Amino acid sequence: MSAEEPTGNGPGTREIIEALLFATDEPLTVRQVIEIFGILDEGEKPSSVTPDEVLSSIEQINLEYERTGRSVRIVRVAGGYQFATRPEFAPWLGKMLREKSKRKLSLSALETLAVIAYKQPVTKPEIETIRGVNADYVLHTLLERSLVAIVGRAATPGRPLLYGTTKEFLKHFGVNDLSELPKPREIDELMAEAEFEVEKRMLQELEAKRRAEAGEDTGITDAEGADGGGDVT
């Protein structure tokens, strides 16, 4: 019988791995899962598992969830594995989590975090030069939340501290490693699209205001105006 199947004497490898990943509040690496199996008491079976068995079990669990239309799956985050809900359930989860808005990062914290993520390792003076404001309070907040950490000292006069992102940062933004972050070019494109939409909306509002001041009937849409554009009898 496969180690991934339950035996008559207790749960099998797959069920144990599923339970471990369900219960953990931190991503578990394959090595950590193997170590947990290794410290089981002598009478507890299975008492060992290979990396291939761990990965195969996770794959089978996800296939089963997909087949039965479950709302959760196991994803790879920050080098480990953890349960996550499928993207299509985000609207409902977002409503539930609005009450926790006080835990959201402020705009200044997000800006500082972006500087650190893309420039790391980076010093406080470098962060302040880029943002143009003092970074003491924001850095203290990010350190408290374990989103950034001190990773060394710069080889410059005064040897200022160097800051970098942490695994908690990867977990917070749901990425496996820094390579999955948007590239600066992609961010520029998104910002350009957003600015275009803002400008377009402002022009529409100005045009509506001009027409209202001119006494034009703004209740007729452009399409309706085109259909009824013939001579009036």
Fold and architecture overview:
The protein is mainly alpha-helical and 233 residues long. The chain folds into three domains: 13-90, Orthogonal Bundle (Arc Repressor Mutant, subunit A); 105-180, Arc Repressor Mutant, subunit A (Orthogonal Bundle), CATH 1.10.10.10; 192-225, no CATH class. Helices cover 51% and strands 11% of the residues. It is built from ten helices and five strands, in the order αααββααβααββααα. The protein has a three-stranded antiparallel beta sheet with strand order 3-5-4. The protein has a two-stranded antiparallel ribbon with strand order 1-2. A hairpin with a 7-residue loop joins strand 4 (148-153) and strand 5 (161-165). Helix 1 crosses helix 3 and helix 5 crosses helix 7.
Tell me the CATH architecture of the largest domain.
Orthogonal Bundle
Global shape: flat
CATH superfamily of the largest domain: Winged helix-like DNA-binding domain superfamily/Winged helix DNA-binding domain
Structural class: mainly alpha
Strand/helix succession: HHHEEHHEHHEEHHH
Mean pLDDT: 80
Number of domains: 3
- Tell me the number of helical segments per DSSP (H or I, 4 or more residues long): 10
Top CATH class of the largest domain: Mainly Alpha
Instruction: Give the helix level as a range of percent.
Output: 40-55%
Terminal Cα span: 89 Å
For the largest beta-sheet, the strand count, sense and barrel status come to: 3 strands, antiparallel
CATH topology of the largest domain: Arc Repressor Mutant, subunit A
Low-pLDDT regions: 220-233
- Cross-sheet strand order for the largest sheet: 3-5-4
DSSP strand tally: 5
What integer value in Å does the Rg equal?
27 Å
The quaternary organization reads as single chain
Q: Could you tell me the strand content as a percent range?
A: 5-15%
